[in-house]
Amino acid sequence: MPVFGLKDQTFVRAIQNKFLLRYSVIIFDERGGVIGKSPGLTPDEVVRVAAEPAVVALKYAVNDLQAFGRAVASAVGRAELTWVCGTAERWAPFFFAVGAEGFTSGLVNVTAAPSRALLDAMRAGDRAAVRAVWLAILPFEELRARGGDGNNVAVVKEALRRLGRPAGPVRPPSSEVGAGERDEIEAVLRSFGLVGAAV
User: Which of 75, 135, 117, 125 lies closest to 97, judged by CA?
Assistant: First the structure.
C-alpha cells in the first residue's frame, strides 16, 4: 500500500521537494505505488501528492493543523484516500477533528489497549472518552516529546525493557533516558496497570 510520510525539517530545499515529487510520480506509474517520505513539503505539494491516484494513504507528521485541514479539504474526489496523523496519540484527536482517520503510535509497542481505546472513542465521536483516554496517555507522550522529540524512541525502548522485553540500544545521536525519566516511565507503566499497583 502506498504511503507518503511528511516530517518537517528546515534544511530541505524546495528543489529537492520538486525532484522528489517528479520521482514519486515515476515510481507510482512504474511500480503501482511506493512508500515515500519527504521532509519539508509545502501544503501545496502535499495536495499534489494527494492527487496521485496511486497514493491511498498520506501520513502527515507536521503539527500544523490548519495546513493539514486545508490539504484534506483540497483532496476533492479522493474519498478513498486515508489521512493519518503521523505524530501519535498526543496530536491524534486534533488531527481527527480535521480529517485524519488513523494515527501512528510508539505506545502500541508497549501496550496497544490505550491506543485502541483512543481510536475507538474518536471513531465513535465520544468526546468525553477521547478526553479521558488522551489524558491517560499524555504523560507517556510528553516524555517522548522532551528534548524536541529527542526522547521519542528512547522512552519506548526503556518502557519495553521495564516490561522485560528486548529493545536494543538507542542509536546515536539519540541517547538513553536518565534515571529520573526511568522513574517517570515506571509510573506511567503502573498507571496502565502493566507493572505493580497504580500509585
Answer: 125
Alpha helix (H) ranges present in 14-150? Answer: 14-31, 43-50, 65-74, 88-97, 113-124, 127-149
User: Contact 85/91 with Cβ under 8 angstroms?
Assistant: yes
Residue with cell 505539494: 45
| pTM metric for this prediction | 0.80
pLDDT digits (tens, 9 = 90+) for 60-113: 888 999 989 998 998 878 888 889 999 999 999 999 999 999 999 999 999 999
Q: Domains, the chain, ranges and CATH? A: 1-104 (3.40.50.280), 106-194 (no CATH)
Task: Please name the residues in contact with 100: beta carbons below 8 A apart, sequence gap of 6 or more.
Answer: 60, 68, 72, 83, 84, 85, 92
- Furthest-apart CA pair in the chain: how many Å? 56
